[in-house]
Amino acid sequence: MASHNYKVFSCFNRKFTVTEPGPPPDVQKAFSEFADGASSLSGDQLLRFLAKHQGEVDCTAVDSERILQQSRKEDRESGLDLHDFFRFLLHDDFNSPIKSQVHHDMTAPLSHYFIYTGHNSYLTGNQLSSDCSDVPIIKALQRGVRVIELDLWPNSDEDDIEVVHGRTLTTPVSLIQCLKSIKEYAFVKSHYPLIITLEDHLTPDLQAKAAEMATQVFGELLYYPQTDSLMEFPSPESLKGRILISTKPPKEFLESKEYDDKDNEKESADELSSLPDQTSEQETDDKSAPEYKHLITIHAGKPKGDIQDELKAAGAVRRLSLSEQALEKASESYGADIVRFTQNNILRVYPKGTRLNSSNYKPHIGWTYGAQMVAFNMQGYGKSLWYMQGMFRANGRCGYVKKPEFLIEKGPHNEVFDPRRTLPVKKTLKVKVYMGTGWSLDFSQTDFDTYSPPDFYVKVCIVGVPADMAKKKTSVISNNWFPVWDEEFDFPLTVPELALLRIEVRENDKSQKDDFGGQTCLPVSELKSGFRSVPLHDEKGDKLKSVKLLMWFQFR
């Protein structure tokens, strides 16, 4: 037991006693049940608890013994008492809410996966005037991002290549610096393939120079197919440790400055609109750098005419790019065609051009139609980025998440999944919020309230298809650094495979906006049942050192 003193108007002190809570009644009951009424839990009893209560059927006696050694007091020779058991349940390394290893089938074509994708990966801030740098690229790779986007432009002397957001006030960074940093950090978080998408505004000579740079820097890490076009994409497993290039087949550099400006503005459509690109690839490829074209594994493009025709085009697999607005509009009339397209081809969705502050959109706009590359501004912190981070906590955080089978398969009459159709409830997720801890270690005494301990509550939400969206929240626990809620919520789910569980702690503030106390977002399909320690993150998505919730999950 401890106490916190708060000085009010420099006149007098308010003293608050701080008591860390003990195990909740549900934890005490489970301990008693699996310890057979004894005062300690043996290794065999712990193993039975892990299998039956926690659903950890793959745990072995070795795992159980390791937990015993790490969780019990030093002076205890064997077993866990109730408080040791409680300490173990709060240990997120041993008792995490989701699976920590890669466990999806990684041998399917790339088109069968959602891929962790960045947009304008070189920007440090807004889209108009921030610096371009390799630092945000490095940070993205350290978080597990698997698609990095670079915009390539000639420098002022037109003898070298810069990475810059064209026609803005952003300051450039050299391509060679970006490539070297990509090579160094490409596989620090994930061994699965890294894809570099290029927005190319180069002359044929500079295209050749870019190809030479990529070949020299990446060496054997660089993968490129032996044929000009692929009928099926290779698998993430077959491409482990390799770097792939995705861009449009190169275009000729037109001598007319006036025409060149217009063409480059169309090239910049990835940022500003979905203007059709009307230049013939066959015509322009003749004057392009062959060594550059040879490096392209995933051929890309934007709609040149009717979007439905693009979606139905057969032949070699490719990548199509649509803005978030273009996708929403197309989905109103051609939703089934979009889903069919993404079963073999890759669809990239990017933020609309008016997001000048590098904000993001709701990623389910793309995921529900099978879009593999939902491109995000990784510096655009907020709920949308939390959703993105949550999705890619799945599958061991490797940056590739296998799409649900209903987005890959067709029915007997060529029918496909329809995100707009309300389906029957498939399962119900039961969530119980017991308690929270760690704020007194990670925050100062007055970070939340100047004159008293914080008043915490928890928001528990489901993000997914429209029918599954739900928001719940606990009561407010006043003046307590160690809040105990002990509240339960039910979430009926029609498409649990695409659902995310968003958890956010807020501090109730009657005079202004409630203070932020931590958040996390978890893929529902990965949730483990039973008591779970749920670590919280800051607003950027970085894990807080000590803050966590004790929760309970069950599917029915």
TrEMBL record:
Pfam families reported in the protein's UniProt record: C2, PI-PLC-X, PI-PLC-Y
Signal sequence coordinates: none
Cofactor field: Ca(2+)
Compositional bias segments (type: Basic and acidic residues): 254-269
Reaction equation(s) it catalyzes: a 1,2-diacyl-sn-glycero-3-phospho-(1D-myo-inositol-4,5-bisphosphate) + H2O = 1D-myo-inositol 1,4,5-trisphosphate + a 1,2-diacyl-sn-glycerol + H(+)
InterPro entries in the record: C2_dom, C2_domain_sf, EF-hand-dom_pair, PI-PLC_fam, PLC-like_Pdiesterase_TIM-brl, PLipase_C_PInositol-sp_X_dom, PLipase_C_Pinositol-sp_Y
Keywords: Cell membrane, Hydrolase, Lipid degradation, Lipid metabolism, Membrane, Transducer
GO molecular function ontology, one term from the record: phosphatidylinositol-4,5-bisphosphate phospholipase C activity
Domain named PI-PLC Y-box: residues: 321-407
Coiled-coil boundaries: none
GO biological process, one term: phosphatidylinositol-mediated signaling
SMART domains given in the database record: C2, PLCXc, PLCYc
Chain intervals for the UniProt region annotation (Disordered): 254-291
SUPFAM superfamilies: C2 domain (Calcium/lipid-binding domain, CaLB), EF-hand, PLC-like phosphodiesterases
Subcellular location: Cell membrane
Annotated EC: 3.1.4.11
Domain C2: 409-538
Domain of life where this protein originates: Eukaryota
GO cellular component term of the entry, any: plasma membrane
Membrane topology: Peripheral membrane protein
Name this protein carries in UniProt: Phosphoinositide phospholipase C
Upper classification of the organism: Eukaryota, Viridiplantae, Streptophyta, Embryophyta, Tracheophyta
